[in-house]
Specification:
alpha+beta; globular; 2 domains; 215 residues; Glutaredoxin; four-stranded mixed beta sheet; 58% helix; Glutathione S-transferase Yfyf (Class Pi), Chain A, domain 2
Length: 215
């Protein structure tokens, strides 16, 4: 029987991978549909599901939801499996805070600047902008410091419990540390580095590794 869950997204999108990690952690069977948001003509049928043309979109039967944080919370609530959203007030606040930090302050420097210019662009035969990498590393220190403090506190990002915060952060760090500069920056934040050493071995991370395109 075909799965009633479809994840429409771009293989190399870190947000697409976040949704996949959540689905894997919950044990949900799903099919994928590749959508390139950078294509000149994004399919009209896709734009009906996501009017902004970004990725991913999760479809569960006739129900569509976009925005990765909403997808994560929907999957956690709609399917059986490990609970990825805590109910204790302070811990719930930290999960939401981690997601917001990454979306607001981490994604651009860590992924769009450091990973994209040091790793992804060379992989597809494009020239990296060293100034973008430097700016990304500079901005990432504040992000990593804030996340390290949260990891040190021990409510989330502790390497033992696993929440939506881990699902959201891990794919970002996975891209970031592929750049030597990113790996070096992470080492300066011990609690976060210890968290990554543990979380990077999870099956959900291993099985959703997107690899790199070839030029």
């Amino acid at each position: 029987m075909a799965s009633s869950v479809t994840l429409r997204g771009y293989r190399y999108s870190v947000y697409n991978r976040i949704a996949r990690v959540v689905l894997h952690e919950k044990g949900v069977e799903y099919r994928t549909e590749e959508i390139d948001p950078f294509a000149a003509n994004v399919p009209k049928e896709y734009l009906k599901r996501h009017p902004f043309g970004r990725v991913p979109v999760l479809s569960h039967g006739k129900f569509d939801v976009f925005e990765t944080s909403a997808i994560a919370r929907y999957v956690n609530a709609a399917f059986e499996g490990p609970e990825l959203m805590p109910t204790e007030a302070a811990t719930l606040a930290r999960v939401t805070q981690v997601v917001s930090i990454i979306d607001s302050y981490g994604y651009r420097p860590m992924v769009r600047q450091v990973f994209s210019h040091r790793v992804f662009r060379p992989a597809v035969g494009e020239v990296a902008d060293e100034a973008e990498i430097t700016a990304g590393i500079d901005a990432s220190h504040t992000v990593l410091g804030a996340l390290n403090n949260i990891a040190k506190e021990g409510r989330v990002l502790d390497g033992q419990s696993f929440t939506v915060a881990d699902c959201h952060l891990a794919p970002m760090i996975a891209y970031f540390v592929q750049a030597d500069e990113g790996a070096g920056a992470l080492k300066a934040h011990k609690n976060l580095a210890d968290w990554w050493a543990t979380v990077s071995q999870r099956e959900s991370l291993q099985s959703t590794e997107p690899g790199l395109p070839r030029s």
